[in-house]
Design brief:
The protein is built from 12 helices and 13 strands. The radius of gyration is 24 Å and the shape is elongated. It has 2 domains: 236 residues, TATA-Binding Protein; 98 residues, Ribosomal Protein S8, Chain: A, domain 1. It is α+β, with helices and mostly antiparallel strands. Keywords: Repeat, RNA-binding. This is K Homology domain-containing protein. It comes from Naumovozyma dairenensis (strain ATCC 10597 / BCRC 20456 / CBS 421 / NBRC 0211 / NRRL Y-12639) (Saccharomyces dairenensis). One of its GO terms (molecular function) is mRNA binding.
């Protein structure tokens, strides 16, 4: 998830404005589907119960992740995310009533979706504290049997996306703030070492009971709101996308086509599937095949083919686009979505590489444009719901 102080007009209670925040969470495709629910019923219930603006990004062909965005007052947002964790913890059944494997056991090629923290244990985690004296006294009386009663299946994990700048404030000098959060709320917290692909954001992974995570998020939001710097330059945000690597023969890619070498921002994105077997043919021509998801082909080609025509002219290459009726000739069982093959040829390899690079950059730009439009529409679409409540 990524989180940033909200710039929207803040709701008021009496004469005092209520601080608002926008948090973003990284989800797998299955996690996103479970939170959305049948025809959006589950996420709608979360939105109504907590009076927040909440939505999940569109599925991007070839990517194994989506982003949940939740905006509103701090307590509301934190409670909404706690509800999401409880939903993910629920047991699923197939049509025959058999219990399905927990999503917690899933392993992903896109390593950011895999838990950084080890499996939970009752010795390290504790249920949320409610803070009043009576409950505290009751808690002390039950302390001896607490470990036996703890159900580890109720423990969940959340992946909060945080800008590198804000993450430093959450960790604190010498890790003092993050250690305090861990001790105070009985949770486990760790920050990812790597940046999310093509961004300046990292993950803050929090493991614990939903209520405990809710309480941690409230404190994290307070830190973020107090960390506003007028001189701060916004860092590049992460969004699920397909990128490319300069290393044509790097085979260390995953289902999300994101390379595991995350120290190089250029290598952090999703590498397109390209066919280099025919890089050089008998006609003294260099050739590259690039797969473009069908839903983006129109934008890449442009109105009346103007955009692709300009690309051909600028790079001095020939670019042939696979026809729809030939889709089956190139379709692979591993393809999650329909793709069209763009074949680039030229007698100069550098021209082919330039055309390939520009083609993929145009695709990235179009994906980002649609993602930004979705995020803006999600916020606008839910404004009226909050006002009516």
């Amino acid at each position: 998830m990524s989180s940033s102080p909200s710039q929207e007009q803040q709701p008021e209670t009496g004469n005092l404005p209520v601080p608002t925040i926008n948090l973003r969470i990284l989800l797998s495709l299955k996690e996103a589907a479970k939170i959305i629910g049948l025809k959006g019923s589950t996420i709608s219930k979360i939105r109504e119960n907590n009076t927040v603006k909440i939505g999940i990004s569109d599925k991007v062909p070839g990517c194994s992740d989506r982003i949940l965005s939740c905006a509103g007052p701090i307590n509301n947002v934190s409670n909404a995310i706690g509800d999401c964790i409880e939903i993910l913890n629920e047991i699923d059944f197939d049509t025959n009533g058999n219990v399905l494997p927990s999503l917690k056991l899933e392993k992903y090629s896109f390593h950011f979706l895999n838990n950084i923290l080890p499996p939970p244990s009752s010795a390290e985690l504790k249920p949320p504290s409610h803070g009043n004296d009576e409950q505290q006294q009751e808690g002390e009386e039950e302390e001896e049997v607490a470990e036996e009663e703890i159900d580890l299946n109720k423990i969940g994990t959340v992946r909060l996306i945080i800008s590198n700048h804000h993450l430093s404030s959450i960790i604190g000098k010498g890790g003092n703030k993050i250690k305090s959060l861990i001790s105070k709320h009985g949770v486990k917290i760790v920050a990812s070492k790597d940046f999310l692909p093509d961004s300046q954001e990292r993950l803050l992974e929090i493991q614990g009971f939903p209520g405990s995570i809710t309480n941690v998020l409230i404190d994290v939001c307070e830190i973020l709101l107090n960390d506003i710097d007028v001189n701060f330059i916004p860092e590049k945000r992460y969004y699920p996308h397909l990128s490319y690597s300069n290393s044509h023969h790097n085979s260390h890619n995953n289902n999300n086509n994101n390379n595991t070498d995350n120290n190089n921002p250029q290598n952090n994105g999703n590498k397109r599937q390209r066919d280099h077997a025919d890089d050089y043919n008998s006609n003294n021509e260099f050739k590259r095949n690039v797969k473009i998801p069908e839903i983006y082909v129109g934008a890449i080609v442009g109105k009346q083919g103007n955009r692709i025509a300009n690309l051909r002219k600028f790079t001095k290459t020939k670019i042939m686009i696979q026809k729809r009726d030939g889709q089956d000739d190139h379709h692979s069982d591993n393809d999650e979505e329909e793709n069209r093959i763009f074949t680039i040829t030229s007698n100069l390899e550098k021209n082919v590489e330039l055309a390939e690079s520009m083609l993929l950059r145009n695709l990235d730009a179009e994906i980002l444009r649609r993602q930004t439009k979705f995020n803006n529409e999600t916020i606008t679409r839910n404004d009226n719901d909050i006002e009516m409540d």
